[in-house]
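Sequence in, structure out. First:
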Amino acid sequence: MVLAPVPSGAARGPDGTGDVVIARYAEDSNVTATIRITLDVPGADLSRALCLLRDSVRTCTEVPLEFDEAGTAMIPMMPNSFAAVEW
């Protein structure tokens, strides 16, 4: 499987708060698998971050971030979805 970069844009305030919008686009209708996008923001505590996910099932629904053993946040994303994360 070849993984491509996922388009995103981020901003951080002077107080350390910030947000990021991540999009996962699939032009091929045969792409149906959900993948986990990793999100690592140096110096940011994502443990209480708000994640809003929009895909074919959810309409801007708040979902909890998952974390791996290293503390990196993971977002399960379907094809043609986007997530907004605010910390």
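Second:
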Amino acid sequence: MVTAELAVTTLSAFTLLVMMCGGISVVILQLRCIDTAAAVARQTARGDEAGVTHARSRAPAGAKITVQRRASLVTVTVSVAARPLTDRLVVVPLQARAQVVAEPDTTAPP
């Protein structure tokens, strides 16, 4: 009887551990989306194309990056579909947005 209880407890603990690891991986992926959105927005507001390329390269795999420029505001949205444990299970849609005020054009005469 003790053996059956130990087996059930061990399987329950293992299942809980796997679910927690999946949750942690989703949180880490969300943080990477936030960092990427902020970096791309900053570099776009500066007008630094090399910096934008570098920031985009650090995005999570499969991420979609959308940049919107208005007169004085740069908005960057990073979205990705996370699959925390395997491709066959649930998909968690993640999205991060950053807005930065565009820097004034320094090449124009005063």
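Remark: Residues 106-110 have pLDDT under 50 and may be disordered.
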